[in-house]
Automatic annotation (TrEMBL):
This is Membrane-associated tyrosine- and threonine-specific cdc2-inhibitory kinase. It is an enzyme of class 2 (transferase). Acts as a negative regulator of entry into mitosis (G2 to M transition) by phosphorylation of the CDK1 kinase specifically when CDK1 is complexed to cyclins. Mediates phosphorylation of CDK1 predominantly on 'Thr-14'. Also involved in Golgi fragmentation. May be involved in phosphorylation of CDK1 on 'Tyr-15' to a lesser degree, however tyrosine kinase activity is unclear and may be indirect. The gene is pkmyt1. It is a peripheral membrane protein. It comes from Xenopus tropicalis (Western clawed frog). The lineage of its organism: Eukaryota, Metazoa, Chordata, Craniata, Vertebrata.
Length: 549
C-alpha cells in the first residue's frame, strides 16, 4: 500500500485548511441528530455465506450433530477437540448449564447484532468478565459455523494491551458464549456521557491507543472492518481497546477478503462500495470514529453528507476547534483515495503522534499509581468495616446489658468480605436467577461498583477519565444504507445550519437501564428487545439453513 509523503504538508494534506463547503447547506437534509439509544432493530444482516461445497449434513444426513447436544463444548480453533469447557466447578450430572454453574450474572452491558453482553463474575477465580451470548440459537450447521468464526478471529488477534482480551468460548444448547475481559464501557457510551466534544488530550490518547491496536492487527494481516466507537472498549484504567472482531478478515487466511463484509455505513470507507477491502479501510473508519467523538458530530448513514465526508470535505463548523496537528492527522486518515490514505505505521511515525504518545505514557503511569492508591484505600476501608462489625456485637451486647439502646446495626447490604463483591451485585445471587441465568434484570449501578483489570480486583473505583454507563441500547452495525434520514429536531447551533451536533437528549436506553422499567417476567429489557432478537438477519442464509435441515 503506498505511503503518503513524509511531510504533513504534502499532497494528501494540501487541502487543509478545508474551505467551508457551501454545498453542505444543500446537504442539510442529509444530516440528523444522533439518537442516543439506538433502536434495537438497528442491525445489519450478515452476508450470505459463500457456498463452495455441500454441507456435511447433506452428505451424511444421519450423522448426529454434536453441536445440538445439550452438553457444553469448548470452542477453540487452536485445539479443536470437542471437550467440555474446563472447570472444576462444572458437574455434568447436575443438568444446569455450564454458565449457570460457573458464573454469576450481574448485569447486561450491551447488545449488538450478534449477541447480548453481560457482566459476570467467575465463580472459579472470583474475577469479573464480559460474556457475550449469541442472541438466537444456531439455525443450522452453516449458521453455527458462521458464528463460531468470531472465536477463531479472536484467537487470531492474540494478546495486545489495545485489543480486547479473549478468555475462552463454548457452545451449549445451540448458543455460543464468548468470555472476554471486562471493560468499563465502550467509547460510544463514554462519548454520550460526555456533554460535548471530548477534550483534545483525551482524543490524542484515544488516537494513540487505537493506532497501536490497529497496528497489531495490520501487522498480522488482519482487517477489522467494523471500527466504530461502539466497538472500542475502555478499560477501567482508561486504556482504549479494539473489540468485536466479528467482521474481521484475515488477508492471508483461506477465505481472504472474499468473505469480507462491510461494517457500519457511517464509518465505512468509500472504496468498500467497489468491493476493495484493504487496511486503508480500517484507517478511514478510525478517522471517522475520531471525527465523531472529537467534534460531537452526528455522522450520516447515507446521502449527500455521507458523500461529502468521503470526498475529503470536513465540515469546518465542527472541526475549526480541533488542534491543527490533529486536523492534519484526521485529514490523512480520511483521504478519499485509499491508495494515498495514511497507513498506521506512517501515522505512528508523525511527530505529533509521537509527542502525544509521550503524554500518554505519563497519564497511564499516573492512572496506575492512582489505581494502586485507591486499591489500598478501599482495602483499608473494608478492613476497618470488618473490624467495626466484629466489635459491634460485643458493644451492642454490653449496651443492652447496661439497659441502653442498641447502636444501629449495619444494613444487610454492607460491604461483603469478598473483595470482588459489591452491595449491588450481591442482590443477584444464584437463587434469584431463573432457569436461564442470562435472564437477569440489568443493574445500572453494578457495572460501576466492581471490576477486574488485568486480574486485579478494584472496588468502587471509576477511571477518572471515564463516566461509564451501561447502555442497554443496541450498538449494532446497521442493517443497510438507509435511503432517507429521519428528520429530527436539530440542536441549537446557530452557526451550523447544515450539520448537527450530537443531541444531548436522554435516550431510551437510559430508561431501559432502570430496573423498575426493565424488570419483566422474562428478565429481558422489554418486548421490543425480544422481538428484535428474532428479526431475520439474512433471508438467504435462513433459506440455506432451512434447505439444509
Ligand atoms: N468486554 C466488554 N466490556 C464492557 N462492555 C462490553 C464488552 N463487550 C461488549 N460490551 C458492550 O456490549 C455492546 C455489544 O457488544 P459487541 O459489539 O461485542 O456485540 P456484537 O453483537 O458483536 O455487536 P455488532 O452488532 O457491532 O456486531 C458493546 O457496544 C458494549 O457496549
Ligand atoms: Mg459491536
Ligand atoms: Mg460484532
Amino acid at each position: 500500500m503506498p505511503v503518503p509523503g513524509d511531510d504533513m504538508g504534502d499532497t494528501p494534506l494540501t487541502r487543509t485548511p478545508i474551505p467551508v463547503p457551501a454545498h453542505f447547506s444543500q446537504a442539510e437534509q442529509s444530516f440528523s441528530l444522533k439518537k442516543r439509544g439506538r433502536s434495537l432493530c438497528y442491525t445489519l444482516p450478515p452476508r450470505p455465506p459463500v457456498k463452495s461445497a455441500l454441507p456435511i449434513s447433506r452428505l451424511f444426513p444421519n450423522k448426529q450433530r454434536s453441536w445440538s447436544q445439550p452438553r457444553p463444548q469448548s470452542v477453540s480453533f487452536r485445539s479443536p477437540q470437542n471437550n467440555p469447557p474446563a472447570s472444576e466447578l462444572y458437574d455434568q450430572s447436575k443438568g444446569e448449564t455450564f454458565f449457570k454453574q460457573c458464573f454469576r450474572s450481574i448485569c447486561k452491558l450491551g447488545r449488538g447484532s450478534f449477541g447480548e453482553v453481560y457482566k459476570v463474575q467467575s465463580l472459579e477465580d472470583g474475577c469479573f468478565y464480559a460474556v457475550k451470548r449469541s442472541v438466537s440459537p444456531f439455525r443450522g450447521e452453516s449458521d453455527r459455523q458462521r458464528k463460531l468464526q468470531e472465536v477463531r478471529k479472536h484467537e487470531r488477534v492474540g494478546v495486545h494491551p489495545n485489543c480486547l482480551r479473549f478468555v475462552r468460548a463454548w457452545e451449549e444448547k445451540r448458543l455460543l458464549y464468548l468470555q472476554t475481559e471486562l471493560c468499563a464501557g465502550s467509547l460510544q457510551q463514554h462519548s454520550e456521557e460526555f456533554s460535548g466534544p471530548l477534550p483534545p488530550r483525551k482524543i490524542w490518547n484515544i488516537t494513540c491507543d487505537l493506532l497501536h491496536g490497529l497496528k497489531h492487527l495490520h501487522d498480522r494481516n488482519l482487517l477489522h472492518l467494523d471500527i466504530k466507537p461502539a466497538n472500542v472498549f475502555i478499560s477501567f484504567s482508561g486504556v482504549c481497546k479494539l473489540g468485536d472482531f466479528g467482521l474481521m478478515v484475515e488477508l492471508d487466511g483461506t477465505e481472504g477478503s472474499g468473505e469480507a463484509q462491510e461494517g457500519d455505513p457511517r464509518y465505512m470507507a468509500p472504496e468498500l462500495l467497489d468491493g476493495i477491502f484493504s487496511k486503508a479501510a480500517d484507517v478511514f473508519s478510525l478517522g471517522m470514529s475520531l471525527l465523531e467523538v472529537a467534534c460531537n458530530m452526528e455522522l450520516p448513514k447515507s446521502g449527500d453528507g455521507w458523500q461529502q465526508l468521503r470526498q475529503g470535505r470536513l465540515p469546518t463548523e465542527f472541526t475549526s476547534d480541533l488542534p491543527p496537528d490533529f486536523l492534519k492527522v484526521l485529514a490523512a486518515m480520511l483521504e478519499p483515495d485509499y491508495r494515498r490514505r495514511a497507513t498506521v505505521d506512517w501515522l505512528l511515525s508523525l511527530p505529533a503522534i509521537r509527542n502525544a504518545e509521550r503524554w500518554r505514557m505519563v497519564t497511564l503511569a499516573q492512572e496506575r499509581t492512582l489505581g494502586k492508591i485507591i486499591t489500598v484505600y478501599q482495602f483499608i476501608v473494608w478492613l476497618v468495616s470488618i473490624v467495626f462489625q466484629g466489635l459491634n456485637r460485643p458493644v451492642v451486647g454490653f449496651l443492652h446489658y447496661c439497659g441502653l439502646r442498641a447502636l444501629p446495626r449495619s444494613p444487610p447490604c454492607s460491604p461483603s468480605p469478598n473483595l470482588g463483591e459489591s452491595s449491588f451485585s450481591s442482590d443477584w445471587d444464584d437463587e434469584s436467577l431463573g432457569d436461564d441465568v442470562f435472564e437477569v434484570p440489568p443493574s445500572p449501578l453494578a457495572a460501576h461498583r466492581n471490576f477486574t483489570y488485568h486480574g486485579q480486583e478494584l472496588i468502587g473505583r471509576h477511571s477518572p477519565d471515564l463516566l461509564s454507563r451501561p447502555s442497554l441500547g443496541s450498538t449494532s452495525t446497521p442493517r443497510n444504507l438507509s435511503p432517507e434520514f429521519s428528520m429530527r429536531k436539530r440542536s441549537a447551533l446557530p452557526l451550523t445550519p447544515n450539520v448537527s451536533r450530537i443531541s444531548q437528549e436522554s435516550s431510551g436506553s437510559v430508561k431501559s437501564t432502570s430496573p423498575s422499567t426493565s424488570h419483566s417476567s422474562s428478565g429481558f429489557v422489554d418486548a421490543e428487545v425480544q422481538r428484535s432478537s428474532f428479526l431475520p438477519r439474512n433471508l438467504l442464509s435462513m433459506f440455506d439453513d432451512a434447505t439444509e435441515q
